[in-house]
Write a structure and sequence with these properties.
178 residues; four-stranded mixed beta sheet; 2 helices
Amino acid sequence: MRRPRQPAVFRFAVLGLVLAAAGCGAPQLPCPAAMVLRDASQVVKFTPGASEDPQNVRYVGEIAEAKLNCSYDPKTYERMDVAMGVAFQATRPLASATSMAQFDYFVAIVNLEGEVLARKEFPLELQFPPGQTEASKIEEIHQTIPLKYPQNGGSLQIWVGFMLSDAELQYNRAHRGG
């Protein structure tokens, strides 16, 4: 039996190989660290107006992984191009009639002191195949980051997470396993 996640995992592996090959031959300057924020790595969507009980879950979104590769402007090293792949998954209960999961997520460029230097929000829709309870997708994000000497990718992090309401954030914190 074929699982719906396999194509996305396979595409993510292929994306990783492409990203790795893109850096071949370039000087080995560091790339930023890609981080999925733990508190914002999942979002649970409940039936509107219903309580936050498990039987009222419409769907759950998860950011499974974020990987990136970078390259520098070979003449000045004052610009870094970043290619990032973010793997998203959504699940729904068998009883849910929802055919699509809709989320908003963000990508932020942050220095090592935790100061947000840039941030952008993105919408995401995952279509559940008929009769399936799982859907997945890899979002590819490309960004050019200006750098000032002695700054390089090692002095930056790229954070990814779902846009959460205060209630969703509190729910995640209260129901986090382990």
